[in-house]
Amino acid sequence: MNGLIDVGLFDQITDDIIYEHVYDLYTNHKPRDDQHLGYINKSKTTINISCADNDLTIKQSLTSLSSNTQASSTGFVCWQTSSFLVDWILTDPKCPFYKSFAEKQDLSILEMGAGVSGVAVSLLGPRVKNYVASDQKHILKLLKENFSNNVPTNKFSSETISSDNSNKTHPKIDIIEYDWEHPMQAVP
Ligand SMILES: C[S@@+](CC[C@H](N)C(=O)[O-])C[C@H]1O[C@@H](n2cnc3c(N)ncnc32)[C@H](O)[C@@H]1O
Fold first, then answer.
1. Which sign, positive or negative, has the C-alpha torsion 98, 18, 180, 77?
2. What are the residue boundaries of the structural domains of the chain, listed by start?
3. Taking a C-beta distance cutoff of 8 angstroms, is the pair 82, 115 a contact?
4. Does the pLDDT of residue 1 top 60, yes or no?
5. Which residue among 9, 11, 77, 152 is least crowded, i.e. fewest CB within 10 A of its CB?
6. Is residue 172 pLDDT above 60, yes or no?
7. CATH number of 39-185
8. Which of ligand 1's atoms lies nearest the C-alpha of 82?
9. What gap in Å lies between CA 102 and CA 109, rounded to an integer?
10. Quick check: 165 and 173 in contact, CB under 8 A?
């Protein structure tokens, strides 16, 4: 085990076999069509998903997704990627991150491009010491609303989300603006 990642669980890929490896992944390990990594449902404003034995209700903004303004973003709908990633981390002992979450280590995590769904911050946030989910400004209101609807307010402390936990104990979870194209404009 090396820090957060159990590197012993990775296959070693050397330069001379990299093309063969990618070809093998594409042909033999291609996911089924229903396991695509795209959006889950682009026609419903509220969806229910189950991830790692947890049920989440997620509001999406279809009008903002399809608006022609600068603030239109793919982050206004929930993407399957997050749900598969979190499920893998929390349920598969072969995942290199599994032990870190199962053993409640003192992890601090920064998530970038969280989107409105808040799947990762809702399910991973309560299992670590510090979790900061970030995205562009226009995403944050619905992201905070979804998080608050899915995580009881007594399960975390926060400076950015309303919480019942005033004694500043961990897990500490925050949702902040961070635009990686304009990193110097970050707002705490
Ligand atoms: C395909 S969506 C994925 C959203 C979320 N991770 C999920 O799985 O549902 C990509 C995300 O990246 C965010 N994003 C795009 N450009 C960004 C930037 N310059 N800075 C921060 N976030 C950005 C979008 O707002 C959006 O939430």
1. negative
2. 39-185
3. yes
4. no
5. 11
6. yes
7. 3.40.50.150
8. 8
9. 15
10. no
